[in-house]
Design goal:
heterodimer; A: about 375 residues; alpha/beta; two-stranded antiparallel sheet; 9 strands; about 45% helix; globular; B: alpha+beta; four-stranded antiparallel β-sheet; about 25% helix
Chain lengths: ~375, ~100
């Protein structure tokens, strides 16, 4: 376990460039790990944010002079099968060479692709848009069949190797988890009912785009599946494809297996599941907005992140998106952002409107003359 | 002693065939494991724990668990998530999860 008292002198005295030197060159493993850990907490970043905030307060009419660095800063920790003992076990830090454990490298690369996607496509500087360092914990728990965002970092289980493979295997799942962080910093959608299903859908949408970006795939080349490879070979898919967690193009068709049953996602509001399980069906009803995004992107063609993704990103960052937003609130805002980015009745605007219509979330639109 | 663990949530979502709870009974477990289960329940002060552990304010895709234990004299349920801080409760959960395939 980490010792905060032990860390404090380093954190308060040493400037970041010294910490970086220790992290890279120290022969003392414990000292090197402490330095990396402190850098991962990013004292520099916190200081910079505070300075920017103070600067804005005193000089509100000047552009900020301090800018957060846009270079990705990744740290991968190994829990060695435990659920809590990983803070001192850094296995790969930013700039380190690949290691022999593929799980570590998959996590490191997945964080890198996600950071690059947000930065290069939407000019977003990490999860918080202020350069937040990215942390991941691998080999969490024993036979742990899950990956989650704990509010600060990503946690990956190894799966039971019977039904589930390791959770780092799917880059879209890595993008999915980190996007929960983006959503938390922007709209902070309540993780329950329709707002929770929107939260889940946004993670699937951006997770899928991150996978497409990493493979340089156009809309018609993408499989639109979430979590390909996560299930072991024994799990049955459908006639269209092998088993995956979710199918954005055809919600409800991700798997159909004698042991696991059938994918429960609805593709239309007519089949909305009012269940109380799963925080009110956040992973079930997300199929509806997932399909709306797929339909928008497939109508527009090209790379999904260029137009459909841009509209969704602007909506996630739109201050009018309330934490308790419902599907129709989100749909209305995507249409308004399509109009703002392109224009009323443009191909993009029409693609968004038709997509929501087709999943049973129609957006009432006043006639042009009444606008 | 009878223990049942129900799991919800996770990035995979609810999978119909995996929703069955883990059920463990000290009468049917090998003696060493039955003793380990009793010790973990005692170490966790399970019957004194609040039925609802603190809910996370942040995070997503974490799992929620409900552990129900009946020791013949008392019955108690405790609900918590992957983000629970109590190491003794984590140890009890880890013990149960190891037995998932034998459920």
């Amino acid at each position: 376990m980490s010792n905060p008292t032990q860390n404090r002198p380093l954190r308060s005295i040493l400037p970041p460039h010294i910490l970086r030197a220790i992290a890279l060159k120290s022969q003392d493993v414990a000292q090197r790990n402490r330095a990396i850990h402190i850098l991962s907490l990013d004292h520099t970043h916190r200081s910079a944010r505070m300075i920017r905030s103070q600067h804005r307060l005193h000089f509100p009419h000047e552009h900020t002079l301090v800018t957060a660095k846009t270079q990705v800063q990744r740290t991968i920790y190994d829990a060695h099968g435990t659920m809590d003992d990983w803070q001192d076990s850094i296995v790969r830090a930013e700039g380190n060479n690949p290691v022999s454990d593929p799980v570590v490298n998959e996590a490191y690369d997945g964080l890198g692709w996600t950071h690059a996607f947000y930065l290069k496509v939407y000019r977003r500087n990490s999860i918080d848009n202020e350069g937040l360092p990215l942390q991941a914990v691998v080999h969490y728990g024993t036979h742990y069949d899950n990956a989650f965002w704990d509010g600060t970092r990503m946690i990956f289980g190894d799966g039971d190797q019977d039904i589930f493979n390791r959770f780092t295997i799917a880059i879209d799942v890595i993008g999915h988890e980190l996007t929960h962080g983006v959503t938390e910093y922007e709209a902070n959608l309540v993780y329950s009912g329709q707002s929770g299903a929107l939260n889940e859908s946004i993670s699937d949408v951006f997770g899928s785009m991150i996978k497409q970006y990493s493979l340089n795939q156009r809309v018609d080349q993408a499989d639109w599946l979430i979590g390909t490879g996560l299930f072991t070979a024994k799990v049955h898919g459908t006639e269209r494809h092998g088993a995956a967690l979710r199918d954005m193009a055809n919600p409800g068709q991700a798997y159909n297996d004698p042991l696991l049953g059938k994918d429960p996602q609805p593709y239309h509001m007519d089949h909305y599941d009012p269940t109380l399980e799963d925080n009110g069906g956040v992973h079930i009803n997300s199929g509806i907005p997932n399909r709306a995004f797929y339909l928008t992107a497939s109508t527009l063609g090209g790379y999904s992140w260029e137009r459909a993704g841009r509209i969704w990103y602007e909506t996630v960052c739109d201050p009018r998106l309330r934490p308790t937003a419902q599907f129709n609130d989100f749909a209305k805002l995507t249409l308004e952002n399509a109009e703002k980015l392109y224009r009323y009745d443009s191909p993009e605007w029409r693609a968004v409107r038709e997509a929501w219509d087709r999943v049973g979330v129609p957006v009432p639109v006043p006639a042009m003359g009444g606008r | 002693m009878h223990m049942q663990v129900k799991t919800e949530g996770g990035v995979a979502g609810p999978i119909p065939g995996l929703s069955k709870p883990i059920v463990l009974d000290s009468d049917t477990l090998p003696p060493q494991e039955a003793e380990e289960m009793r010790q973990l329940v005692t170490a966790a002060h399970f019957f004194e724990l609040p039925a609802q552990q603190p809910q996370p304010q942040r995070g997503a895709d974490y799992r929620s668990y409900t552990i129900s234990i009946d020791n013949g004299e008392r019955h108690h349920n405790v609900q918590f998530t992957d983000l629970v801080a109590d190491p003794n409760l984590r140890n009890l959960l880890a013990f149960a999860l190891k037995h998932r395939s034998s459920a």
